[in-house]
Amino acid sequence: MSHIHFPDGVLPVWLWASGYIVAILVGTILLRLTKKEALTRRLPLLGMMAAVMVLGASVEIVPIAYHVNLTVFSGVLLGPSLIFMATFVVNVILALFGHGGITVIGLNTLTLSIEGILGYYFFRLIWKVLKRLTPAIFLATFIALLFSTFAMIGVVSLGTSHYEELIHQEGKGIFEFHLSKEKEEHHPGVAAEEKVNLRRFMAIVLPLGFIGWILEGVITSLIARYIQRLRPDLLRIKT
Amino acid sequence: MIQLSYLDYIAVERKSFLHRLSPKLKIIGMILVLFVIVTVRSLPGLFLLYVILLTLFFIARIPAKIFPLTLYPLIFAFLFIFLSGFRIFFILLIFLKVLCGSTGVVLLLASTPYPSVFSVLGRVLPSSFVMALFLTYRSVFILLTCLEETQHALYLRGGVQWKHPWRSLINISNGFGHLIIQGIDASEKMYESMALRGFKGKIHYRGE
């Protein structure tokens, strides 16, 4: 609920290409670290949890496209290596429905997997300290989503010069790539208006995100409570 | 997501010229669409691409019911508007890029069965990822059946009523919890039946 799915064509090429390279590197390292037999055995579970995340993404809790990610909960169940693969699969399937871009699958995977991986570690840590399920899962979800939202804002901010070029693009040419740099005239008053306003973007995203972190924290805690009542073995916590 | 089964049905059952084209050609076409989205900055150029995609949408007789799927990503595009000083050119550029991308992928998925798409992806992705894609797609359909039953149970318990937000949140969460438990049980049975059939870590797709 904390992140937005980056669409195609908005972020600069170098940024989403780097996203793919980093995602491939991280995925390769995690695959190498996971034993093949363990991976084969857990693939159906991975598929099922990824399907739960896909379904969660399609159920709006509040209109304006708030939906549960269930990434943190899936991270607690699957562990850090498998959650990365699960988030990649989820982003591919959602991209095929137009719910997020294809060029930005790498970046979307990285920001979404931050939630899952951090959620897993924060849950284990907070559980060790507090020994209470509801606050542990709520805090783990809240903190993981906070980090993931800031990661998303960080990614958006990396493309600032690209957005400024697009804003100044009107009437200049049809392609993104130029063979030679053109001299541009800037009028100071107009230039100030045309600069990218990251603060305004954050002022919209952070309050909305905050509501989302609380909602998802509450929903994840309630889900964990339900599962702890019926299938306590799934959470693998010593009470 | 309820439209997923309908999208899958259209991809398999319809027989337009787009459905009969080879999946590889359609994926190459989608790559070209992405190339245009990423490189072109002119509004007329992007608008022309969008008109071409819409024309293909109607010529391939994709049902109008599917069309709203292509508009959904605009919700996220709205947030990018706040980055600029609400410049009309920037807003239209972003919207057209988003619309071209979403219309292209929905066209692809509505005209190509998912095993064909995933098997083409299998040429560039490791086999574990492709396996995970197949299993996830299959699991979505299994969970959709569970979701229908869960929805009936939820309605009997008061469902989702925003007059009672806390009760509604509990119902939604219990619904998801139930879905997760059913899903995990189903995944264990899935693994056992796959192992019985000789599954050793790879799914082979024969194609048509």
What would you say about this model in short?
Helices cover 71% and strands 2% of the residues of chain A. Chain A has 239 residues and is mainly alpha-helical.
Structure commentary:
The complex is a heterodimer of chains A (239) and B (208). Chain A has one domain (13-170, 188-234): Arp2/3 complex 21 kDa subunit ARPC3 (Orthogonal Bundle). Helices cover 71% and strands 2% of the residues of chain A. Chain A has helices spanning 13-33, 36-58, 71-78, 80-96, 105-130, 133-158, 160-167, 188-194, 198-230, and strands spanning 60-62, 66-67. A two-stranded antiparallel ribbon of chain A has the order 1-2. In chain A, helix 1 (13-33) crosses helix 4 (80-96), helix 4 (80-96) packs antiparallel against helix 5 (105-130) and helix 5 (105-130) runs antiparallel to helix 6. Chain A is globular. Residues 178-193 of chain A have low confidence and may be disordered. By secondary structure, chain B is mostly helical. Chain B is built from nine helices and no strands. Chain B folds into two domains: 3-112, no CATH class; 124-196, no CATH class. At the A-B interface, helix 1, helix 2, helix 4, helix 7 and helix 9 of A face helix 3, helix 5, helix 6, helix 7 and helix 8 of B.
SSE order and pairing:
The complex is a heterodimer of chains A (239) and B (208).
Chain A: H1 13-33, H2 36-58, E1 60-62, E2 66-67, H3 71-78, H4 80-96, H5 105-130, H6 133-158, H7 160-167, H8 188-194, H9 198-230
Antiparallel strand pairs in A: 1-2
Chain B: H1 3-13, H2 17-20, H3 23-39, H4 43-59, H5 74-81, H6 88-111, H7 114-121, H8 127-156, H9 165-196
Helix pairs in contact in B: 3-6, 4-6, 5-6, 7-8, 8-9
